[in-house]
Amino acid sequence: FQTMSTMKCFSRLTLSTLLLRHSVGAWVSPASFTTTRRATMPPLHAATVQETQTAASASASSSGRVKFAKYEGLGNDFILIDNRDQKDPSLTPEQSVKLCDRHFGVGGDGVIFALEPPSTDYDFAMRIYNSDGSEPEMCGNGIRCMAAFLKDLGEDAKTYTIDTLAGPIIPEMNDDGTITVDMGPPELVASKVPTTLEANFEGDSVVEQTLECNGKTWKVNCVSMGNPHAIIFVDDLEKDIDFESDGPALEANTDAFPAKINVEFVQVMAPDHLKMKVWERGAGPTLACGTGACALVVAAIRAGKIPRTKTRVTLPGGDLFIEWKEENKKIYMSGPGTFAFEGMAKVN
C-alpha cells in the first residue's frame, strides 16, 4: 500500500511539474487530462498522430475526451484540435469555453480547429472559438500556431492556403522556424470594419476620429483585418490609460462598433518600432494579437506616425515584424508559433 501511494504521489508530482513548466498560469487538476511533452519524447509519426487525433475527434462526444495540442504565439495561447477529416468543429462553443478555463480546463485564449477544406482551392480550413465562446473571423497568432500544428502532424508543404471566416490566409514556414503570414490587404471603409464613426479620411475611412467613451475623449483609427480593430495612439502606455477599465468599455461600445471591437493602445517608440497593449474582443487582455499588430501598423502609417517600412511591434509577449507592402497592398506578419504540450482532455 505504501509503495502504491508513493507511486501515485510521484506521478501527480511529475504531471504538476510538467504543467507548471510548460503552461504557466494554466494549471488544471491532474484528473482533468493527461499530457506528454516533446522535450522528453519524440513527436509521434504523422500517421500515428492523424490516427489518434481522428479517433479522438470522432469519439469525443461519446467518450467525453478529446485529443489536443497546446501552442502559443508570443504567449497568446491556443488549444489545437485535429479535425482534418470533417468540415465542422468537433466541440461546441460551450465545450470550448470549459476547455479554455485556466482553473478547471486546459487553459487558453481560444480553441482552434484544423478542418477539411471547403474546396480544392484550399489546403485546410480554420475555425476558432474564443475563451468566451464567441467566434472571431480570424486570428493572426492563431494562424501561425495552426501552421506549426500542421507541420507537427506531418504536413510538409512550405505554404498552405487556409480558409477562414475572414477569407483565404497563406502562412509560409521559414527556415529559421518562424512563420510569415500573408494576411491580405486591410479593410479601411468605415461601414465594412464595421464602425458607425463618421468617415473623415480618404476612401470613407476613419483616422484619428473623436470618440467619447468611459468618460474620456479618444482619437480612434479603425481597421479591419477580417476582424475589427480600434487603434488608439498614446504618449505613454503606462500613464495615459486605465487598461482594465478603458479596454472593456471600448470593446463593448456597440453604438460605435456594432460587432464590438478589438482595442489596441499604441505608443510610438521609433520610426520603425511600435509598442502595444491589446484588449481582445471575446478574450480580454492577451499577451499578443497578430491581426492587431497588423492593424496598428496600417493605422500608424495612415495617421503619419511612422513611414511605410518593415516595423517591429512589441507586444507583452514579445515581438512581431509587420510589413504593409505598397505594390500589392498586402500585409505580411512574421513571428513564432510554438508547441507547449499535448494530451487528452475531458469534455462534457
From TrEMBL:
Family statement: Belongs to the diaminopimelate epimerase family.
Entry annotated with the keyword Signal: yes
Catalytic activity: (2S,6S)-2,6-diaminopimelate = meso-2,6-diaminopimelate
Any coiled-coil regions, as ranges: none
Enzyme Commission number(s) of this protein: 5.1.1.7
Segment forming the signal sequence: 1-25
SUPFAM superfamilies in the record: Diaminopimelate epimerase-like (SSF54506)
An example Gene Ontology biological process: lysine biosynthetic process via diaminopimelate
Keyword Isomerase: yes
UniProt cross-references to PROSITE patterns, sorted A to Z: DAP_EPIMERASE (PS01326)
Stored Gene3D superfamilies: Diaminopimelate Epimerase, Chain A, domain 1 (3.10.310.10)
InterPro entries: DAP_epimerase_AS, DAP_epimerase_DapF
GO MF terms, alphabetically ordered: diaminopimelate epimerase activity
Name this polypeptide is given: diaminopimelate epimerase
Pathway assigned in UniProt: Amino-acid biosynthesis; L-lysine biosynthesis via DAP pathway; DL-2,6-diaminopimelate from LL-2,6-diaminopimelate: step 1/1
Short name of one Pfam family: DAP_epimerase
Keywords, comma-separated and alphabetical: Amino-acid biosynthesis, Cytoplasm, Isomerase, Lysine biosynthesis, Signal
GO cellular component, one term: cytosol
